[in-house]
Specification:
Blueprint: E1 2-6, H1 10-21, E2 25-29, E3 41-43, E4 50-52, H2 65-70, H3 72-75, E5 78-79, E6 83-89, E7 92-97, H4 100-106, H5 111-123, H6 125-132, H7 140-155, H8 161-171, H9 181-195, E8 201-202, H10 207-219, E9 223-225, E10 242-245, H11 249-255, H12 262-269, E11 276-284, E12 300-303, H13 307-319, E13 328-331, E14 348-356, H14 365-375, E15 383-389, H15 391-397, H16 413-417, E16 434-436, H17 450-462
Parallel strand pairs: 1-2, 1-10, 2-9, 6-12, 10-16
Antiparallel strand pairs: 3-4, 5-8, 6-7, 11-14, 11-15, 12-13, 13-14
Helix pairs in contact: 1-10, 1-17, 4-5, 5-7, 6-7, 6-9, 7-9, 8-9, 8-13
The protein binds flavin-adenine dinucleotide (FAD).
Length: 477
């Protein structure tokens, strides 16, 4: 069967891996000059060093069903710290270690409540992973996973002080305030992985994940064509073929314009986007001088103060205002991975972004610097190089990041389980053999490959095939 995959983000590449492994004739068409979409590591302009343009930290890369079947952890090296993620607070921090007991003990009197929420999730981690990957089976484990996540999402309300701030920081990955039920589901999964697989980073940068996927596709006869933007369905698909679109709903509606029923097309066009990101990449002359020294070892730090402040910043962005004191997501990869800098360098690379309103053109760099400075006095003096990437940069880099929304669509209850249309098999389109597989389909944003895996599973079922073995032992090379 001829299979075209349009877009080479983690989901497109996952779909291509599965289809190539199943023996089909696969071509991936990518509009950009590099494969990987949100998996992209570039050289700094006018500075020696490499940085992650988009995704940096990978809680799902060792945990999702697709990546576990692909055995990504045995193909490329990852590093992580004892600390999965931390949340900077005035004069101190709340820290989530991979070790739950230590987390609870250092959270002090707020620790037992954190543990009480995490323990049931960890006991059911396989069911939680299946549920978060939307592997909905008529099986008790599906119910167990859904129940554990639901209880955790509700249980977050009972958290106080440090534990509540820790939870608010991880919930805000969904670009929403702490009250958002949909973002709480996202936060509960990410927090549980913090105590399960951890929050690792790939040695050399996220581009290494894309390279491993492309290598596998090519080893199984597939091709990846770069600099090839698909504008019309007929360029890549004829009846009887399969096409899998790792594109946003509106992008797909434009490409398949004349082949879509009006109602479906209108549903695609009414898909909603959320907060955008304004990002800065720094080179520092040394490690960030955190007030709480434990943060020196954390690869991921959330900055936003107490829960009310985090939620206030996220609400402001959703209302259309750039928050004065934004919630900032920060990664300091070179605390563990020195391959990103020239040998002998003592510099540090830092990746940080804040949420801003969708479509905002404002460069939040100064606000981000002020925010870091407030938890790490002296930070500003260490900056030797910086590159700003406001929301329009992301919108231009990748049409899926509409208005700079790096999650590829707003995270709320209506769009959590059934995106971009109200269907339990959102990966299918009304055109036989044509599928959507981007982060605008379940299970949404992040580097997990599961939307691609689901689309490929449906495409294979259509021709009576199951998902093949994806492990490295079956490789052709
Ligand atoms: C700044 C930033 C930070 C992030 N941090 C993290 C993180 O730390 N951890 C994490 O898990 N996730 C993170 N994410 C989110 C993650 O990168 C995305 O959720 C993920 O990449 C989505 O994957 P995807 O396969 O849906 O498509 P994408 O990665 O969006 O890739 C889609 C690809 O399709 C191509 N394309 C689109 N239309 C066409 C067309 N018509 N023809 C040809 N090609 C086309 C695009 O050029 C792009 O390469 C981050 C994203 C950004 C931008």
């Amino acid at each position: 069967m001829k299979v075209s995959v349009i877009g080479s983000g983690p989901n497109g590449l996952a779909a291509a891996v599965v289809m190539a492994r199943a023996g089909h004739d696969v071509t991936v068409y990518e509009g950009s000059d590099k494969a990987g979409g949100g998996l992209r590591t570039d050289d700094f302009t006018e500075f020696d060093g490499r940085f992650d343009v988009c995704s940096a930290v990978h809680p799902m890369a060792l945990a999702s069903t697709f990546f576990r079947a692909f055995d990504l952890g045995s193909r490329i090296p990852f590093v992580q710290s004892d600390i999965s993620f931390a949340h900077a607070l005035p004069g101190r921090a709340a820290v989530a270690y991979q070790d739950l007991e230590r987390t609870s003990s250092e959270l002090g009197r707020t620790g037992p409540a954190w543990s009480a929420i995490m323990k049931p999730l960890l006991r059911q981690i396989d069911a939680v992973r299946a549920m978060s990957g939307l592997e909905l089976r008529p099986h008790p484990s599906t119910v167990a996973g859904a129940l554990a996540l639901g209880v955790a999402a509700m249980g977050f309300s009972a958290l106080r002080d440090e534990a509540r701030a820790l939870a608010a920081g991880v919930v805000a990955h969904g670009a929403a305030p702490f009250s958002s039920i949909a973002a709480r589901f996202v936060g509960a999964v990410l927090a549980a992985e913090g105590h399960a697989a951890g929050w690792p980073i790939p040695v050399g940068g996220s581009g290494a994940i894309a390279d491993a996927l492309v290598k596998d596709i090519q080893a199984h006869g597939g091709r990846v064509e770069l600099g090839r933007t698909v504008a019309d369905l007929r360029e890549v698909w004829s009846p009887g073929d399969t096409a899998m679109f790792d594109t946003g709903p509106r992008g797909f509606a434009d490409i398949a314009l004349n082949a879509l029923p009006a109602r479906y097309e209108s549903a695609l066009r009414s898909y909603r986007y959320g907060n955008a990101a304004s990002k800065v990449d720094f080179v520092l002359s040394g490690p960030i001088p955190w007030t709480d020294e434990r943060l020196r070892d954390a690869l991921t730090v959330h900055l936003g103060g107490w829960e009310r402040e985090v939620s206030g910043a996220e609400r402001a962005a959703l209302r259309g205002a750039v928050p004065e004191r934004p919630y900032v997501l920060l990664s300091q990869p070179t605390r563990r991975d020195r391959t990103r800098l020239p040998p002998g360098s003592t510099d540090e690379i830092v990746w940080a972004y804040a949420h801003v309103p969708n479509g905002s053109t404002e460069d939040a760099a100064e606000r981000i610097i002020d925010r870091i400075e407030s938890f790490a006095p002296g930070f500003r003096d260490l900056i030797v190089h910086r590159e700003s990437r406001p929301a329009p940069f992301f919108a231009q880099l990748n049409p899926n990041f509409h208005g700079g929304d790096i999650l590829g669509g707003r995270v709320d209850v209506p769009q959590l389980l059934t995106r971009p249309t109200k269907s339990v098999r959102s990966w299918r389109t009304p055109i036989p053999g044509v599928y959507l597989c981007s982060a605008a389909t379940p299970p949404g944003a992040g580097v997990h490959g599961m939307a691609g895996w689901h689309a490929a599973r449906l495409a294979l079922a259509r021709v009576g095939q199951g998902v093949p073995d994806l492990g490295p032992v079956a490789r052709a090379d």
